[in-house]
Amino acid sequence: MPDWREIVSKGLSGLKLGADEKEEVHAELAEHLEETYEALLREGMSESAAIRRTLSLAEDWNDLRRKIHWARKGKETMTDRMKQLWLPGILAFALSTGMLVLIQTYGPKLWVASWMGVLPFGKLYIPWLLLLPIVGAMGAYFSRRGVGSRRLMLSSAVFPVLPFLASILLVPVSLMFGDFIGQNVGLMSLVMALLGWVVVPGAALLAGALPVLFFFSRQKDPQQTAF
Amino acid sequence: MIGPGIKRGTAELAILSVLEEGPLHGYEMARRIEKQTKGALRFTLAALYPMLYRMEQRGWIRGAWETSQSGRRKRCYRLTPAGRKKLSPLRKEWEELFGALKRLTKVAHA
Question: Residue A116, exposed/middle/buried by CB under 10 A (0-12, 13-18, 19+)?
Fold first, then answer.
């Protein structure tokens, strides 16, 4: 009987995995070949024909080695979630932040609306808000291109306000544990911050995302398409 | 005979479906799929194992070495709760696709 372990080791030589992991793969594949070979013999096949037929399961060793390497290292392609949420969301966030920085630096100061006088929390950057629907539409569109569901399209669109939401929510939490964050942060300031950095920009992002969602909802939902 | 593109697409469903019946090792899985599909789905090593490893990384299945009654060590795969959860929508998706294709071919022949 052929030494299937040796055949597999030779066929997969150069497989870039850790010693233990490689040993496991070799043992598993050799076991598969051995069982196939024994089953073919039991069916009455000649030894040489059974060996040929068993070896045909491996087809191309180089292809097999490459595929196993990708699968074990998780390097095949981007995951669905990456294409449908993280990538479009981060892209939208980068774009919206970049635009905000540009507007804060070079934008028309007169277009800045402010609540609560000197407090910086309640500011509305009107030019930024006017541009956000485009960002929201882009986030939703790229999520859709990654075959994202409606929920993921909306999440990608509003992604740029999520870091703001997280940082605003951290303020009351940090006040509970220490006093190193501004003592003058009051409830009204937090509400204003939520409005100015989360609710209003979020609505602007959604305003851009909803037409995209509506446009694609007239087509078949990607979750229902198997291709 | 089903073409290679469709085979690749259905392979995940095939693996999850046979594992729903109970834990299996690679060879037995391939054999059972081949038998139950009357030879329409046949797995080479390059098709089966990379897919099993990927599915394991996604948390749909879990593999563990076990010793059989004959003393042979085999890596048995089991469906995880995440895999079980994945199976139902996947099955529905493929049923819808094949239903749609069936309706389409009926219309074409009418």
Answer: middle
Q: In the prediction, which pLDDT does A35 show? A: 94
Tokens of A168: 């605003």
Tokens 């073409």 locate to B3
Q: For residue A151, which amino acid is it?
A: R
Residues of A in contact with B49 (CB under 8 A): 25, 28-29, 32, 64, 67-68, 71
> What angle (nearest 5°) sits at the alpha carbon of residue A70, between those of residues A67 and A72?
105
| DSSP result, A107-166 | S-GGGEE-SSTT-STT-EEHHHHHHHHHHHHHHHHHHHHTT--HHHHHHHHHGGGHHHHH
The tokens for A86 are: 């993280």
Rounded to the nearest 10 degrees, the angle between the axes of helix B45-57 and helix B4-20 is 60
Distance from CA of A34 to the nearest CA of B (A): 9
Compute the distance between CA of residue A44 and CA of residue A46 in angstroms, rounded to an integer. Answer: 6
Please indicate if any CB of chain B lies within 8 Å of the CB of A20: no
Q: Residue B87 carries which side chain, given as an amino acid letter?
A: L
**Chain B residues touching residue A74 (CB < 8 angstroms):** 54, 57
3-state secondary structure (DSSP) of residue B71: coil
Cα gap A210→A153, rounded to integer Å: 9
The answer to whether the Cα torsion of A94, A97, A101, A107 is positive or negative is positive
- Reported ipTM: the value is 0.84
pTM above 0.90, yes or no: no
Read off the pLDDT of residues A137-150 as tens digits, 9 standing for 90 and up: 999 999 888 767 78
**pLDDT over threshold 80, residue B63:** yes
Residue with tokens 């749909």: B60
